[in-house]
């Protein structure tokens, strides 16, 4: 009896010792693995070149993610530039990034040493929406044969469809008329200009891509614009973009999953439009980019290396909307904001337009040379609005020296355009709205070397001629027909910036009084 009483605690003691031993073993293994991981992480992070750009010390596994503000990561880059200088580095996970700032630095990288920065970074987020070899669109594609094929196609067909020519200019002028009619219909009541500008600029892209414009209140049109805007708003923010370099991030819930849904919505709409084109197109007479692309798909049938496929057509159309409509819309909305914030400048624009072309004649591109002050104001809107503060990432093709620092091969490079457009060594009043930046002593328009809103190098925006046409005709037409002001008793509109594919101002209300 006593034996069994003693045996019970003895067996429990043995069992407890085994549990403790197993737990200690697991703890030892876990600590050892963690120590090994930390050692490998430290070795990987310390593998630096002798003249690698300075930057904050990265933490294990996550790098410098904690350095970034969630809502405004661009402010985080500005702080790092102030602390570390115009060429700095940071990490996301184990992925190395280098930020280039200031006109001289970016000019050296994208001008003198452009051949070393011709590759786009392979962003994991792009894989989430089906981008890959020969299916990368054109805007953020690698500089391979597929990119060259798509870029040639875009430039050639946009020209044949009227980009930079009178045929498209006429359509832009017509759309400016529709826009003015929509604003006049507001009858002096306060309104947010965002949707009106978006639909006007979006229609120009639709004319090129789909062969026709939409009515401003068309449900399909508004759904297309909304899905495009939402996808670009999420996909091009600096922090989510950087986070996607952590491979497992793509599988977690969060903003990247919403981007995937927005992409699916955009794709569904485009597929419907493409299917309609298949039924009605004439291969001998392409009406628009979709027709021309479908012709190329037929020609390339059987070619396994071609970049012409229906999936890539969808990517290409997204790129064209991103480059041609998001940025121009943002610039025009900033333009209206600056005009109500600076009524004395708006008055001078009105006076010049009244003197040169009056209030009846339609605005054309030929008027630009006769409107130096208006042209200077448009350029200052682009400079001050600074709608693309950081260019979509490149990757260094080779070890490259810039500004005395070495940027190792395969490092992701972010060009900080904001630092150029507001470079204190290049502009008299970089942080003010000052159209005189673009005027000489005689009041004539002058170009400035540091004015590079369309970037530099091989990846400079191929839609620049279209953007210039849209900005001049839309802005000048609006100024010709309206006086814009802040509603009575309304607070002064904020210049706070909302980041996405392009930087927009916070929503604001204005009044438009016909002149």
From TrEMBL:
<dbReference type="InterPro" id="IPR002401">
    <property type="entry name" value="Cyt_P450_E_grp-I"/>
</dbReference>
<keyword id="KW-1133">Transmembrane helix</keyword>
<dbReference type="GO" id="GO:0006805">
    <property type="term" value="P:xenobiotic metabolic process"/>
</dbReference>
<dbReference type="GO" id="GO:0016020">
    <property type="term" value="C:membrane"/>
</dbReference>
<keyword id="KW-0503">Monooxygenase</keyword>
<keyword id="KW-0560">Oxidoreductase</keyword>
<dbReference type="GO" id="GO:0020037">
    <property type="term" value="F:heme binding"/>
</dbReference>
<dbReference type="InterPro" id="IPR001128">
    <property type="entry name" value="Cyt_P450"/>
</dbReference>
<keyword id="KW-0812">Transmembrane</keyword>
<dbReference type="Pfam" id="PF00067">
    <property type="entry name" value="p450"/>
</dbReference>
<dbReference type="GO" id="GO:0005506">
    <property type="term" value="F:iron ion binding"/>
</dbReference>
<comment type="similarity">
    <text>Belongs to the cytochrome P450 family.</text>
</comment>
<feature type="transmembrane region" description="Helical">
    <location>
        <begin position="21"/>
        <end position="40"/>
    </location>
</feature>
<keyword id="KW-0472">Membrane</keyword>
<dbReference type="GO" id="GO:0019369">
    <property type="term" value="P:arachidonate metabolic process"/>
</dbReference>
<dbReference type="InterPro" id="IPR050182">
    <property type="entry name" value="Cytochrome_P450_fam2"/>
</dbReference>
<keyword id="KW-0349">Heme</keyword>
<protein>
    <submittedName>
        <fullName>Uncharacterized protein</fullName>
    </submittedName>
</protein>
<feature type="binding site" description="axial binding residue">
    <location>
        <position position="461"/>
    </location>
    <ligand>
        <name>heme</name>
    </ligand>
</feature>
<dbReference type="InterPro" id="IPR017972">
    <property type="entry name" value="Cyt_P450_CS"/>
</dbReference>
<keyword id="KW-0408">Iron</keyword>
<dbReference type="GO" id="GO:0005737">
    <property type="term" value="C:cytoplasm"/>
</dbReference>
<dbReference type="GO" id="GO:0016712">
    <property type="term" value="F:oxidoreductase activity, acting on paired donors, with incorporation or reduction of molecular oxygen, reduced flavin or flavoprotein as one donor, and incorporation of one atom of oxygen"/>
</dbReference>
<dbReference type="InterPro" id="IPR008069">
    <property type="entry name" value="Cyt_P450_E_grp-I_CYP2D-like"/>
</dbReference>
<keyword id="KW-0479">Metal-binding</keyword>
<dbReference type="InterPro" id="IPR036396">
    <property type="entry name" value="Cyt_P450_sf"/>
</dbReference>
């Amino acid at each position: 009896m006593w034996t069994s009483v003693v045996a019970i605690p003895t067996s429990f003691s043995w069992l407890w010792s085994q549990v403790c031993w197993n737990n200690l073993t697991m703890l030892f293994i876990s600590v050892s693995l963690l120590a090994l991981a930390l050692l490998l992480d430290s070795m990987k992070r310390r593998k630096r070149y002798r003249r690698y750009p300075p930057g904050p010390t990265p933490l294990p596994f996550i790098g410098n993610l904690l350095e970034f503000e969630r809502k405004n990561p661009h402010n985080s880059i500005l702080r790092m530039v102030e602390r570390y200088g115009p060429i700095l580095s940071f990490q996301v996970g184990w992925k190395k990034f280098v930020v280039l700032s200031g006109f001289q630095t970016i000019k050296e990288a994208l001008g003198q040493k452009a051949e070393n920065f011709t590759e786009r970074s392979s962003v994991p987020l792009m894989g989430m929406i089906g981008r890959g070899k020969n299916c990368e669109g054109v805007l953020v594609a690698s500089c391979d044969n597929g990119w060259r094929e798509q870029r040639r196609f875009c430039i050639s067909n946009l020209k044949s469809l009227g980009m930079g020519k009178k045929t498209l200019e006429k359509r832009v002028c017509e759309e400016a008329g529709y826009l003015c009619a929509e604003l006049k219909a507001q009858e002096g009541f306060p309104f947010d200009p965002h949707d009106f500008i978006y639909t006007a600029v979006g229609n120009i892209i639709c004319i090129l891509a789909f062969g026709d414009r939409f009515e401003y209140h068309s449900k399909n049109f508004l759904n297309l614009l909304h899905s495009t805007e939402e996808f670009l708003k999420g996909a091009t923010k600096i922090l989510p973009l950087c986070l996607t370099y952590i491979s497992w991030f793509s599988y977690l819930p969060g903003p990247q999953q919403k981007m995937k849904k927005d992409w699916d919505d955009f794709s569904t709409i485009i597929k419907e439009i493409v299917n309609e084109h298949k039924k009605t197109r004439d291969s001998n007479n392409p009406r628009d980019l979709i027709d021309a692309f479908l012709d190329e798909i037929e020609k390339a049938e059987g070619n396994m290396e071609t970049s012409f496929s229906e999936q890539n057509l969808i990517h290409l159309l997204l790129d064209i909307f991103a480059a041609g409509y998001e940025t121009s819309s943002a610039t025009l909305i900033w333009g209206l904001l600056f005009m109500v914030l600076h009524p004395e400048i708006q008055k001078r624009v009105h006076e010049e337009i009244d003197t040169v072309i009056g209030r009846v004649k339609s605005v054309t591109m030929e008027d630009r040379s006769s409107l130096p002050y208006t042209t200077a104001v448009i350029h200052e809107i682009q400079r001050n609005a600074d709608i693309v503060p950081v260019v979509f990432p490149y990757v260094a093709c080779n070890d490259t020296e810039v500004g005395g620092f070495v940027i190792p091969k395969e490092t992701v490079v972010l060009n900080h355009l904001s630092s150029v457009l507001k470079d204190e060594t290049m502009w008299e009043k970089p942080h003010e709205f000052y159209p005189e930046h673009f005027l000489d002593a005689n009041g004539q328009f002058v170009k400035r070397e540091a004015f590079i809103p369309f970037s530099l190098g091989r990846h400079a925006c191929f839609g620049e001629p279209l953007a210039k046409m849209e900005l001049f005709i839309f802005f000048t037409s609006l100024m010709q027909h309206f006086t814009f002001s802040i509603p009575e008793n309304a607070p002064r509109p904020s210049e706070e910036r909302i980041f996405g594919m392009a930087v927009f101002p916070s929503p604001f209300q204005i009044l438009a009084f016909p002149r």
